[in-house]
Protein: prephenate dehydrogenase
Organism: Aurantiacibacter luteus
Amino acid sequence: MSFERVAVIGLGLLGGSIGLAVQKHLPRVRTIGFDADAGVRERARERGLVHEVLDDPVEAVRQADLVVLCVPVGAMRLAAAAVAPGLSADVVVSDVGSAKQRVSRALAETLPGHTVIPAHPVAGTERSGPDAGFASLFAARWCILTPPDGAPEDKVAALTAFWQALGSTVEVMDAGHHDMVLAVTSHIPHLVAYTIVGTASDLEEVTRSEVIKYSAGGFRDFTRIAASDPTMWRDVFLHNKDAVLEMMDRFMGDLEAMRSAIRAEDGEAMFDLFTRTRAIRRGIVEQGQDDARPDFGRADHGKDTA
Ligand SMILES: NC(=O)c1ccc[n+]([C@@H]2O[C@H](COP(=O)([O-])OP(=O)(O)OC[C@H]3O[C@@H](n4cnc5c(N)ncnc54)[C@H](O)[C@@H]3O)[C@@H](O)[C@H]2O)c1
Ligand SMILES: O=C(O)C(=O)C[C@]1(C(=O)O)C=C[C@@H](O)C=C1
């Protein structure tokens, strides 16, 4: 089976990018969109993010064979409930939420009797809203599917083929494992960025210094991440609380070890860690995983608009 009519609920960065990518890579597929915000719907129409933007969520999903929920994880249950009356019996409902275990549970509870196959394209930027989306967002990126036990194989295969058509490499994973892995590779890095930029800003206020003005290199990279959408990230931490807390304990232990090394002037401990981490970075670059987005030109998509 393959999808012919895809409904995208939430037309921000992720929803808009899916709409544009489907129109580019799957030209025979009809795309219909809905967003709870009338201003977003208007802008989505102007940008042509999907073929058709409807003002009613129930109508938006009618006759769709794939519905993708692209709203903040805290709004998934509400979005699913809003579309439920329009869903056809055979539909696949999926999402793009950054945390999976609690979202999967919420969707299964809200849509009993429907096939729900959660997904997480590990692709994004610090930008959000209907102007942020672009068709190549998913190219050469991972997309993790977390199908529940007993999910129909043909539907999992169809969703896999859908994401592959948009340029992603698909991996199937247990939702709990996903949340642990993403806690350390995505959620804690965002927390560190939000915190360090906040610390520098507080310091600046106290000392009347120009910490941020003269920041360059590493700190600038942190400010990009710390510009990410506050609603999205508040929801991620509320919905992946356990895994984030567990990984934070590990991280804070390692940070303490570095503090001890600095205090003891243990250069060898520092050198060993930095050598190990440099090898990891080089491995990523050699595998071609670094900024693999083909046309992710900073001029087009990297504007500091957040
Ligand atoms: N931004 C990223 O880098 C990234 C990457 C991968 C996955 N995700 C996940 O994708 C989802 C969407 O993130 P985004 O970056 O596209 O956010 P976004 O803010 O750009 O877009 C979200 C859209 O959802 C709409 N919305 C909110 N509640 C709604 C509801 N109940 N019904 C319909 N529309 C509603 C908002 O009006 C907004 O336009 C989140 O769950 C996030 O965790 C984000
Ligand atoms: O590249 C970025 O700006 C991102 O933050 C993308 C990123 C990530 O942490 O890798 C953010 C959240 C997601 O759920 C997936 C991808």
Summary: The chain has two domains: 5-173, 177-296. The radius of gyration is 21 Å. The pocket of nicotinamide-adenine-dinucleotide (ligand 1) is lined by residues 9-15, 35-37, 40, 70-73, 75, 78-79, 96-98, 121, 124-125, 128-129, 132, 229, 232, 236 (CB under 6 Å). The chain is about 50% helix and 10% strand.
